[in-house]
Amino acid sequence: MKFLIVSDIFSLESWLIDGNEPEIMPAVYEFYNFLGNHCEHTFDAVIAHPSVNKVVEFPNGSKVYIHKLKVPVYYIRKFISLPFLKRKAKKLLKKNLDYTHVYGMTIYANVARELGVEYNLKSVGRLFGSLIWDVLKKGRWLKSKTRFHYQLREIKNPCELTICTEDGTEFDKAINKYSPRSKVHLLYNGVNQKLKEKLTSIPVIKIIDGANEIKFCYIARLTHWKRQDLALDIIAKLKANGLKVSLDIYGKGEEEFRIRNRIIKLNLSEEVSIKGSISHAQVSSVLSEYQVAMFLYDASNLGNAMWEAALSGRLILTRDTGKTTNIFNKKNAIIMFDENTDQVVRDILELVNHSFTLAQESRRTIYSLLPNWQDRLEEEMRLISCMNLYE
Questions:
Q1: Chain-centroid distance, C-alpha 165
Q2: Rounded Cα gap, residues 213 and 69, in angstroms
Q3: Within 10 A of 199 (CB to CB), how many other CB atoms are there?
Q4: How many angstroms separate the CA atoms of 278 and 103, rounded?
Q5: In this structure, is the dihedral angle defined by the CA atoms of residues 249, 255, 257 and 261, taken in order, positive or negative?
Q6: Which of 171, 292, 363, 370 is the most buried (most CB within 10 A)?
Q7: Residue 145 in this model has a pLDDT that exceeds 60
Q8: pLDDT band at 388, cuts 50/70/90?
Q9: Are 244 and 185 found together in one domain?
Q10: Measured between alpha carbons, how far is 316 from 363 in angstroms, rounded to an integer?
Q11: Do residues 281 and 21 lie in contact, with contact meaning Cβ atoms separated by under 8 Å?
Q12: For residue 9, what are the β-bridge partners?
């Protein structure tokens, strides 16, 4: 198969432009590397960037065409990039008649569908999880209105095949509501095999009652629905109960100023630090420094950061949002129900001596659940190659 891919650059600038390993978005990084080194499948991708024109070539001849779109504001550039990249994709389609599929990532799935119809090619939409069901369920739009507008368009008028990351946000419910006959597959992300081996070589934590300090970490983008505010409330209450605790928050985002102010308000300046983003190469060494990893998101908590924390043998503290409790429960984690921080504090105080058992069980759960990226992407190729059978 030969794919024409229309996509955002996501957070892959350091990789595609400078050749460094990306900090986040391992799914796209692994996807390009998988296809770019495959003996049977190839691709050309079109991407917009505010200051760079560049072609990145892969061992099998696949190419990423980075086109300069000189619009400095990210959200405006993303909106303008839809017709811009559609024109760039059309130029490739007119030059090359060997493409078998048009593949659109996130909001560019709509472009893939339109090009597929126009050029009589199979269209595939790729979504990396979605908050759309949480938005629809609560009858409100969150801050990224444009993104949800295009996701709703993709749901109501989808590509011939849609593949979405199974991140527990119940995207399938939105599909069933608006387009019940559409062909949608929810797949868990894979895990890098070398990273998996590295993480599972870290000893499982064991917190002993009366320990000098319990160290918490929170690895997530600093955005409103990741709910670092709940983590701060928990730390404040544990401190009030006489425990020596610390919390390091890893990430960047628009909520940083608000989080810093809350740290000061709760008198946690000595206990809590914001460390900035980390790369995937740093994940195992960072996680090994902590005993508890916190995931308190609004829509769901299932995703790469949680998988990696569980594989590293950290004690998982999470919320019962989305499909989180399909995987994590009281046998392998500490669960916060609703936003009941008092209940979580009681559980931490009561379960501290069971930390090893819980962390060991969560490692076993995730180890058996997740495929490596090679197998995960082979499954995606199988689904795409079977598209003709759906008709």
A1: 8
A2: 50
A3: 25
A4: 29
A5: negative
A6: 171
A7: no
A8: low
A9: no
A10: 10
A11: yes
A12: none
Helix (H, G, I), strand (E, B) or coil at 256: helix
pLDDT of 141 above 60: no
**Contact criterion met (CB below 8 Å) for 388 and 166:** no
The answer on 231 and 168 residing in a single domain is: no
The strands making up 42-49's β-sheet, listed across from edge to edge, are 54-57, 63-68, 42-49, 2-6, 101-105, 122-127, 161-165, 184-187
Query: Does one domain contain both 161 and 216?
Result: no
H or E element, residue 347: helix 341-351
248 contacts: CB under 8 Å, gap ≥ 6: 215, 216, 217, 218, 272, 273, 274, 275, 290
Query: What 8-state DSSP symbol labels residue 389?
Result: G
Instruction: Indicate the residue type of 103.
Output: Y
Q: Over the stretch 226-265, which tens digit does the pLDDT of each residue have? A: 999 999 999 999 999 999 999 999 999 999 999 999 999 9
CA 276-146-15 angle, to 5 degrees, is 40
The answer to whether residues 300 and 324 touch, using CB atoms and an 8 Å cutoff, is: yes
Task: Tell me the average pLDDT across 111-136.
Answer: 87
Tokens linked to 166: 């199974």
The CATH number that applies at residue 319 is: 3.40.50.2000
Range of the domain at 22: 2-190+371-390
Alpha-carbon span 200 to 67, nearest angstrom: 41
Are 172 and 252 members of one domain?
Answer: no
pLDDT digits 0-9 by tens, 333-373: 999 998 999 999 999 988 877 899 999 999 999 999 999 99
- Half-sphere exposure in the Cβ direction for 384 (13 Å, CA): 24
Which residue, among 188, 194, 196, has the nearest Cα to 367 in the 3D structure? 196
pLDDT at 139 (0 to 100): 60
Residue-level pLDDT at 173:
81
Residue 267 sits at φ, ψ, to 5 deg, of 60, 50
Same domain, 33 and 92: yes
Indicate the number of domains in the chain: 2
> What is residue 25's predicted lDDT score, i.e. its pLDDT?
67
Looking at 17-31, 48-62, 251-265, 334-348, which range is the least confident one? 17-31
pTM: 0.84
Return the higher-pLDDT residue of 69 and 24: 69
Instruction: Identify whether residues 146 and 40 lie together within a single domain.
Output: yes
CA angle 294, 299, 301 (to 5 degrees): 35
Same domain, 8 and 63: yes
pLDDT, the chain, mean: 89
